[in-house]
Amino acid sequence: MSCIITPPQLDRLYFYTEYTGAAKNLIQTMKFRSLKSLSLFLGSLMAGIDFPPVDAVVPIPLSKERLIQRGFNQSYYMAKVISSTKGLPLEHLLLRKLNTPAQSGLNKKDRQKNIRGAFQVDRFRGISSIVPGRILLVDDVYTTGATLNEAAMTLKTAGTKTVFALVFARTPFDQN
């Protein structure tokens, strides 16, 4: 029923594995022990996933505060490997305009509220030819879809026609 009230903005989600066991441990280790090299490894695994043709690969941006705290944006390094492997442009089309609290520990409704309005399209990147095309968003985890849906909505509001997402891990349906 919630899909009818708030339709999803993603045209399709692609993922490497489920967010359980070893995959969950890898992501938590990468993020909370600041292991940039692990994000490159996970990106190389994700690069093996087939997805439709896209015009650009776009990482989910972190806020400046979170970037300073962690020391790197894992989504950027994953996207960098994917774009390089697939021969696609890596574009920073989105800016994180709000420093939102971490999504972990929040339920679906609170995640949606927390992330609402967090992104904007970076109009200074010369993206007029890219925004109307097909975009592949890259992030580490899909839990409820709040972050990726908000990013996709931001891109579609700017004129993007199709937004796919590729994540390393997706939370099993019975857990979100």
Short description:
This protein is α/β, with parallel strands linked by helices and 176 residues long. The chain has helices spanning 2-5, 21-32, 36-46, 64-70, 74-86, 108-115, 146-157; strands at 12-18, 56-59, 94-96, 119-121, 134-142, 162-170.
Task: Note down, in words, how this protein is organized.
The chain has a four-stranded parallel sheet with strand order 1-6-5-2. A two-stranded antiparallel ribbon has the order 3-4. α7 links the parallel β5 and β6. Helix content is 38%, strand content 20%. It has one domain (2-175): Rossmann fold, CATH 3.40.50. It is globular and about 40 Å long. It is built from seven helices and six strands. It has helices spanning 2-5, 21-32, 36-46, 64-70, 74-86, 108-115, 146-157; strands spanning 12-18, 56-59, 94-96, 119-121, 134-142, 162-170. The chain is an alpha/beta fold and 176 residues long.
